[in-house]
Structures are given as structure tokens and as C-alpha cells.
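Hello support,

Our group uses your service weekly, and this is the first time we've seen a run hang past the timeout. The protein is NUDC2 protein. I'm not sure whether the cause is the sequence or the server load. Input pasted verbatim:
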Amino acid sequence: MSAPFEERSGVVPCGTPWGRWYQTLEEVFIEVQVPPGTVTKDVRCRLQSRHIALSVRGQEVLQGKLFDSTVTDEGTWTLEDRKLIRIVLMKTNRDAGNCWTSLLENEYAADPWVQDQMQRKLTLERFQRENPGFDFSGAEISGNYSKGGPDFSSLEK
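Update from on-call engineer: The timeout came from a worker crash unrelated to the input. Re-ran successfully.
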């Protein structure tokens, strides 16, 4: 059994009734499938630090308190090909230990296996950032990687 890992982008998506969401160390991405032919005036999207509200053609699609805080001024949404809304939220806490387990506080949680794969991915992303000369793209993590994995910053170089 494996999480639905997308090799091309390196994301571990969490499926929802309206689309999917996924995350990196810095951002949370939300992709919402909307009826073909949707135009921007059909969309109402309100992004706040801890809240999100999205409606399309007067129908509420997504609304609630986010799992963790985001940078309000840096949240964006776009309508792509008149059938997909992509929302990008910038995490306030951008370390590998901040793996969102759900999109909203009590909704759209990743199942335990997907959560595990998300945490592994964020830990690898952290290792890549800390060691820019190394390629971690084919790396596997085992052992203690929860909360961002081990901290090697105090080791002598």
C-alpha cells in the first residue's frame, strides 16, 4: 500500500469531495473542481489567517477554520481553464514539524497513511534545503521523521 505520491511534483495529495489539497514546507495548495465554464465573477473566495470561505455560483464549497495560521496577505486564488480553482496559502510556521494533518480544524483530514507520507515528504524537503549540494529526490526515510525528523544542526561540520 502506498500514498498517492505524484512523482513529477513530489506532492502527496489528500482527496476531498470537491478536489484535493497538499502541502510543502511553506505552502498549502487547495485545488477545487468547479463546473466547466465557470468565470471569475461566479467565484467568491475570502482568505484570512485562520479562515477560508469559497463559494461558486452561490453554492458554498469550502468554509471553516484552517488547521493552522497562514500569512493573510500572501494567500491567492486563481481560476484555471474555467474548471479548476487553485488556492495557495503561505504557512506562518514553515518548519518540517508543521505538517498539517487536515485542511480545516475538523474536516478534510488525511488518513494516517497519507499523513505519514506527507511528513516524510516535508522532512526530505527540509533535508534538501539544509543540504543544497545533495540530491534527496530518490531518498527513503525510515525511523524517526515525525516532527520534521532529527536535528543535525548542532553537529560539527
